[in-house]
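Structure in, sequence out. Go:
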């Protein structure tokens, strides 16, 4: 287990709010695949798939507001692998 992985795990276990980020804009990093990998790593660090999926949640989906939506075939709250289908 990497140092960052163990620190994220300890932070989450202590009640800290862990967030997901794609690192998009960094050369060689692609927003879609890197965010999916981030979700997988968060689950490995102890978050449930549902906690990892909403770890980037800021704001709300409501009329008149901008939002990015992800539609998948399956239940992404059961396993983060559903996001790759």
């Amino acid at each position: 287990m990497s140092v960052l992985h163990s620190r994220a795990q300890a932070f989450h276990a202590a009640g800290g709010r862990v967030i997901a980020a794609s690192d998009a804009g960094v050369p060689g990093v692609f927003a879609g695949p890197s965010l999916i990998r981030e979700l997988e790593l968060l689950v490995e660090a102890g978050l449930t798939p549902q906690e990892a999926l909403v770890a980037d949640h800021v704001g709300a989906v409501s009329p008149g507001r901008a939002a990015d939506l992800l539609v998948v075939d399956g239940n992404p709250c059961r396993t983060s692998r559903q996001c790759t289908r």
